[in-house]
Design brief:
With 315 residues, this protein is an alpha+beta fold. It contains nine helices and ten strands. The chain folds into three domains: 6-130, Alpha-Beta Plaits, CATH 3.30.70; 142-220, OB fold (Dihydrolipoamide Acetyltransferase, E2P) (Beta Barrel), CATH 2.40.50; 237-315, no CATH class. 38% of the residues lie in helices and 23% in strands. It has a five-stranded antiparallel beta sheet, covered by helices on one side. A hairpin with a 2-residue loop joins strand 4 and strand 5 (121-124).
Length: 315
Amino acid sequence: MNKKVVEDIQFRIIKDASGENVSLDNMSIKATNSLIEILTALRNIAQYESRPDLTIGVKRGSACASINGNEGLQVVRDGFLKVFNNDSERNNIYVHNMQIIKDQITNSELDFEVSFLEDGERIPVIELFGQKFRKKRERREVENNFNIEFFEAELMESGGNRPNFHVKRAGHSFKIKCERADAIKISPFLYKTVKFSAWAKMNSNHKMEYTLCDIYNANERDFYNEFKEFFKEQNRLEGTAPLKRIHYKLKDFYSNEQFKESRKFLKLYCNDLADINDLTTILIISKAFKHHNDLKDLLKNIEDIIVSKTKKRLV
């Protein structure tokens, strides 16, 4: 059975609250506001679909809002039907804007005609606006980008069955996940100021979770401020500039044979959310040191992250 072709969808205000016929020439404020609300809802749907053939209009001489088009209008009609039928594939953009239209039809004390023009036949659908429109429950997707934060904070607690530690900074408490060995390593700084980096990730409840990356208290070199400023600048750069800074940062480490020091830098990128371009840049500049005793484990970790992202084994 061929699907009927819809030619327009119309929302016509027939009578105002006093029972008078309505046209564009004699509209009350209430009828005018109602027509504007419907036109706005139709515009929102058309903008969402972004189909060039969709147009919104008002019929000459009547208080009638319509949405017109070709292929795009078939999509809109199907979107309406999915909301009417409480279909599992209904779109909440449609639900929201159709609810706006429904409020005008049911609550404005105006008389409406609502119809689809399908294969030349005008099909009334106003009764379908009498039912309850239900928003589809959507799974919340949390977008996470590579994010590393540097802490200078007081260590308040360390340990637990699931290793973690708690710090306080500027009056706020933070829970940091870690490995058991890290919990032992950080314990001597209890009630003291500890400097460390942590990977930050938004959880499904839209709260930040932190996982320890590295501790900087025992280093002669001020890695804490060095790396903190490095990433602060990285976040301001665009294009290939961040990749060049990574390249020259590692080149400086390697040319001065500061391999143990470079480990501290590489460790910052050993995270599944790290940008693949950053990771690739690291492997390229580090190629000659792939089997170096101070670097091989971290470089292998970075390579594995790239493989998991691309599903391709590096040559």
